[in-house]
């Protein structure tokens, strides 16, 4: 009898684990309708859970209504089965702007309005053939295959809605992140939806939301395995860095001054500097700072993000005259601070940074460079350029050799 009791208790616990909604602290919920038990995937446990809701055995959850019709019924069972095998005809998701959108599948006519939308979809191996509209100012070195696709203007400041609609898109991806620059896509969303276009809003260049957004789009575009492959690789790089630096005390963190222009700070820098193990001396400040105050704070490291054009894939790694000039100007202005005296002044491409409309999905590469600069002894085995190269070759399908093409940091890392 005692054995039987233990067995029954064990079965009860297994059933609870199988169908209970996941606690927010345990997993990052996949925000797709059909994820009935609100964990990080859609699988048979969701089918079991939605059936228990239907029979009154479990409380209804927000994402249990897989058909998104306001009812829990056998149609939701069928929809979850179809999602599991990738055969659903439509999918309802919560996008990066916390909007609910239902997408008809498969998507055959798509417009992307930011370069990092295309970059993220290239990670997923989404066919270029469905993209009927792209940003007008794509970097030809990084996006060589899109020269014959219609340009639709450039988000966030001058998208051309008339040209977008002229491409007869089924789906348009717009930005989701306002960032410190205050742009939104609210007006464009209204105009496109009024014309019957499905709008999805995603950012794809913010480290804290990137994996989650990519995972959702893996479901939207039928590329779940591709999303999982990249996310696993990405997290194997980023997580050890962040786990290491999360243990650092303030005393362990070098004082970092990051400027975009002379004496111009930005809150966009705070998170990536902290994740790399530094302390932003102007954390939370967006705007002008005084030269006297920078001298007083005496930073140990100076970082200068440099705009695309001064850096990029089309440049000769052996020709860094312009970057050297920028660095020397900084060192001349701040000659008495510790960073200059120790030679700890670094330039990094805006393409490896966050928030910028011109940036891509590569802030994790920037994080690697910063960690290496901030804590060279701790991250002695970290190889940022090798990571960057693998990303280009394996996940972007680009024939770019960073030893021969492209400038992204200055001075170059030793051994790079």
Write a structural description.
The chain folds into 3 domains: 15-88, Dockerin domain (Type 1 dockerin domain); 103-222, Rossmann fold; 238-410, Rossmann fold, CATH 3.40.50.1980. Residues 1-26 have low confidence and may be disordered. It has a 5-stranded mixed β-sheet, sandwiched between helices. Strands 4-3-7-8 form a 4-stranded parallel β-sheet. Strands 1-2 form a two-stranded antiparallel ribbon. The protein has helices at residues 2-19, 44-54, 74-85, 115-123, 161-166, 186-194, 210-220, 224-245, 270-275, 291-297, 321-333, 338-341, 363-374, 384-395, and strands spanning 90-94, 100-104, 110-112, 131-133, 153-154, 158-159, 171-174, 198-201, 255-258, 264-265, 279-280, 287-288, 301-306, 345-349, 409-410. Helix 7 packs antiparallel against helix 8. Strand 1 (90-94) and strand 2 form a beta hairpin. The chain is of the alpha/beta class and 416 residues long. It contains 14 helices and 15 strands.
């Amino acid at each position: 009898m005692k054995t039987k009791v233990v067995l029954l208790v064990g079965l009860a616990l297994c059933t609870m684990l199988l169908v209970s909604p996941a606690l927010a602290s345990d997993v990052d919920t996949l925000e797709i309708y059909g994820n009935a038990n609100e964990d990080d995937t859609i699988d048979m446990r969701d089918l079991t859970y939605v059936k228990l809701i239907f029979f009154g055995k479990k409380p209804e959850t927000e994402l249990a209504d897989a058909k998104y019709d306001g009812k829990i019924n056998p149609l939701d069972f069928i929809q979850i089965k179809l999602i599991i095998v990738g055969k659903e005809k439509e999918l309802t998701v919560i996008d990066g702007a916390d909007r609910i959108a239902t997408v008809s599948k498969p998507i055959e006519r798509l417009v992307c309005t930011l370069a990092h939308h295309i970059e993220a979809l290239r990670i997923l191996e989404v066919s270029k053939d469905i993209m009927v509209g792209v940003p007008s100012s794509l970097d030809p070195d990084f996006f060589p295959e899109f020269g014959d696709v219609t340009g639709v203007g450039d988000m966030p400041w001058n998208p051309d809605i008339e040209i977008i609609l002229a491409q007869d898109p089924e789906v348009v991806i717009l930005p989701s992140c306002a960032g410190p620059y205050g742009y939104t896509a609210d007006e464009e969303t209204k105009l496109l939806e009024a014309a019957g276009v499905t709008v999805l809003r995603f950012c794809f260049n913010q480290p804290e939301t990137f994996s989650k957004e990519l995972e959702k789009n893996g479901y939207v575009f039928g590329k779940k395995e591709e999303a999982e492959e990249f996310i696993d690789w990405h997290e194997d790089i980023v997580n050890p860095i962040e786990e290491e630096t999360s243990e650092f005390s303030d005393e362990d963190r070098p004082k970092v001054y990051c400027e975009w222009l002379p004496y111009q700070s930005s809150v966009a820098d705070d998170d990536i500097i902290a994740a790399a193990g530094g302390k932003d001396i102007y954390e939370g400040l967006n705007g002008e700072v005084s030269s006297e105050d920078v001298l007083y704070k005496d930073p140990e490291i100076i970082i200068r993000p440099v705009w695309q054009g001064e850096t990029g894939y089309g440049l000769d790694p052996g020709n860094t005259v312009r970057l050297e000039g920028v660095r020397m100007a900084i060192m001349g202005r701040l000659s008495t601070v510790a960073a200059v005296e120790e030679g700890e002044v670094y330039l990094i491409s805006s393409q490896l940074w966050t928030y910028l409309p011109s940036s891509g999905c590569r802030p994790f590469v920037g994080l690697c460079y910063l960690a290496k600069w901030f804590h060279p002894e701790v991250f002695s085995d970290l190889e940022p350029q090798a990571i960057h190269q693998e990303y280009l070759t394996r996940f972007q399908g680009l024939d770019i050799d960073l030893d021969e093409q492209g400038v992204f940091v200055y001075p170059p890392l030793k051994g790079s």
